[in-house]
UniProtKB/TrEMBL annotation:
Pathway info: Carbohydrate acid metabolism; D-glucarate degradation; 2,5-dioxopentanoate from D-glucarate: step 1/2
UniProt-listed InterPro entries: DgoD-like, Enolase-like_C_sf, Enolase-like_N, Enolase_C-like, GlucD-like, Mandelate_racemase_C
Protein's UniProt name: glucarate dehydratase
Catalyzed chemical reaction(s): D-glucarate = 5-dehydro-4-deoxy-D-glucarate + H2O
Domain Mandelate racemase/muconate lactonizing enzyme C-terminal as annotated: residue spans: 171-265
Family of the protein in this entry: Belongs to the mandelate racemase/muconate lactonizing enzyme family. GlucD subfamily.
Keyword Metal-binding: yes
Length: 424
């Protein structure tokens, strides 16, 4: 039997990178997005990478988990998760963790375990000379399609630097943003973040997108900003236009009422965010598509478990994102490549990031025709750029967000912004 690879050291480095003034149902993105880079090193000197949220509460839990996992074999993933569960208890919720408009009910154990699992899989892959997708059962696709993630957006906002994208505050601004995204990255699917403008304006924006991009799958996601009645009006107006409508209204009960009459599937990353929320969603037909996210579903293996449950119960599977760096993009790509029923283009915030602001050595990951090629080198296939890590850590120390005990990600709308009524 080959030797154990024991964890001898864990480095957790919080970083900040610039985020544009993107709008959603609860506010505007902070000028910086916070992430934590996890580097796990074994006694044989093999290092692996993970990435996760970086609010203070999460950082505290990551640090205690790191101490508890030191000395364990990187193959003992089940035992690692159990040890983290002993530390955190069955705590649920508390922090927003970049999930818009909700205090998440996702599992703390799964959120804390996830970046360690990814880093350990990176090490396993490096040691075995295999890409992470092989450790997940093998890639069933060589490249993973992602969607253009459009946002209503201010040109700038206090604390944000003006960026090359400019404002997008009406349907024409949204179509112009989509054209630039599609021209630059080649995306073959489009998602619009809604819940910001009056619903009829958001319907207009989707219809303009349909005119501008005939045949491209479209999605609209108002982050549960609407009533059941408004959701149904929108759904009827967009019959035959949307591939899915994401989280139109809060809660499984409301979603089930919309789902009964809506002419398209409903998707969610808000009312099903943990395994124990699946049975009622299935029983009540509340959702047609679940958006997975390995950051809160407990890593890559548990995301595959979610995929299996969705397949069993006839639900579709897509993938959620928050503002993220290249380590997460690599993990998302390996997972999607190895998940047969993940047939929707995945979400990504990647295009909104300044390409010069990342912690990985550039050149390995990129979009061609809207897709990312699955890395074939051992592990995740990405390397840490230590100078960039130090720079973005300095930015974290300077940016003034680190003492917040929330997501460090969203700012509630300031009073000068008059939010339009979410009702129709
Ligand atoms: O529903 C979603 O897609 C998200 O929760 C992703 C992000 O939080 C999104 O709303 C954002 O970045 O504003």
């Amino acid at each position: 039997m080959s030797e154990a690879l024991r964890i001898s050291r864990v480095d957790i480095t919080p970083v900040a990178f610039k985020d544009p003034a993107l709008l959603n149902a609860v506010g505007v993105h902070e000028p910086y997005a916070l992430r934590a880079v996890i580097e796990v090193t074994t006694d044989q000197g093999i290092a692996g990478l993970g990435e996760t949220y970086a609010d203070e509460g999460h950082l505290r839990r990551l640090r205690s988990a790191a101490d508890a996992l030191t000395g364990m074999d990187v193959h003992a993933l089940g035992a690692m998760r159990r040890r983290i569960a002993e530390l955190t208890g069955d705590d649920r919720g508390g922090d927003g963790h970049g999930l818009t408009g909700m205090i998440t009910t996702s599992s703390t154990v799964d959120r804390v375990f996830s970046p360690f699992e990814v880093a350990c899989l990176d090490i396993q892959g490096r040691a075995a000379g295999r890409p992470v997708s092989d450790l997940l059962g093998g890639a069933v696709r060589d490249e993973v399609p992602f969607s253009a993630y459009l946002f209503y957006k201010w040109a700038a906002h206090p604390g944000h630097e003006p960026d090359e994208w400019g404002p997008a505050l009406d349907p024409y601004g949204i179509v112009a943003q989509a054209r630039r995204m599609v021209e630059r990255f080649g995306f073959g699917a489009i998602k619009l973040k809604g819940g910001v403008m009056p619903p009829e304006q958001e319907v207009e924006a989707v219809l303009e997108l349909r005119r501008a991009f005939p045949g491209i799958p479209l999605r609209l996601d108002p982050n549960a900003a609407w009533t059941v009645e408004t959701s149904l009006k929108v759904a009827r107006r967009l019959e035959g236009v949307l591939e899915y409508l994401e989280d139109p209204t809060p809660g499984q009960e409301g979603m089930a009422r919309v789902a009964r009459e809506a002419p398209m599937p409903l998707a969610t990353n808000m009312c099903v965010v943990a395994f124990d929320e699946l049975p009622s969603a299935v029983r009540d037909d509340a959702v047609g598509v679940v958006l997975s996210d390995h950051h809160y579903w407990g890593g890559l293996h548990r995301s595959k478990l979610l995929a299996g449950i969705c397949a069993t119960f006839g639900m579709g599977l897509s993938m959620h994102s928050n503002s993220h760096l290249g380590i997460s993009l690599a993990a998302m790509t390996h997972l999607a490549a190895a998940t047969e029923n993940l047939t929707y283009a995945c979400d990504t915030h990647w295009p909104w990031k300044d390409p010069a602001e990342d912690v990985i050595v550039p050149g390995v990951l990129g979009f061609r025709a809207g897709a990312v090629a699955v890395p074939r080198s051992p592990g995740l296939g990405v390397e840490l750029d230590r100078d960039a890590l130090a720079r973005l850590h300095e930015q974290y120390l300077r940016c003034g967000l680190r003492n917040r005990d929330d997501t460090g990600y969203m700012r509630r709308l300031d009073p000068s912004y008059e939010k339009k009524s979410p009702r129709w």
